[in-house]
Please model this.
Amino acid sequence: MFEGALRIAREEYPDLDLALYRARVEEFAERARARVAAKGRRAVVQLNECFFGDLGFRGNSDDYYDPRNSYLNDVIDRRIGIPITLSTVYCEVARRIGVPAYGVGFPGHYLVKCLVPGSEVIVDCYGARVLSRDDCQTLLDSMQPEPMTLSDEMLAIASPRDTLSRMLNNLRRIHSSKKDFARALRWVELDLEFNPDAPHLFRERGMLYVQTEQFGKAVADLERYASLVPDAPDLPQLREQLQLIRKLLSHLN
Model:
């Protein structure tokens, strides 16, 4: 997950010194090794004291949608980020000191799960706190328009691939909201490198091709999505859009 997140950062910063940022995280781990002397849940508490206290990592509540919150080098340099990138750095530091910590794709707010003997400890890296199950339900309630009951699946460990896709989706949304469709397109294309068989990514890329007036490529991607998901609920609207694009192409030719 950590290496994949550096790969995303290097897409934005082509000259990024990856070895430097690996070394920076090892420095964080050295600080944590000196601080974490306990075992079990207490080890997580001590790691939190180091990561959020000594090292000063925190959530960017002032400018949550700043793209720098999604680039791992910026997060490491500034000690500030959003839940998913803070969690990525946290998990890497934890791994290096022998604390098993994994990302959790919680709805709307990425979390960390530390597996300690006989227990699981949920950490909210954005809020710099340990969460009980009741806390997780409260967090879920705060983000969902309709009431939802917390399930074990919501607290399941996320795969590295799913985590990287979530990072890339955040970046796509940020740049799409700014009408920077060329940059948004770049993040979908990188996501396709990680997930070459994900049908929804062909739809996303096709719609961005429309925005960037690459209509031939748009038709190819949207048709591919339709063939991969023939029972998709959005297919009728998509076929109407394809007809409009084809008409436009016929006029352009």
About this structure: The domain at 160-252 is CATH 1.25.40.10 (Serine Threonine Protein Phosphatase 5, Tetratricopeptide repeat). DSSP finds eleven helices and six strands in the chain.
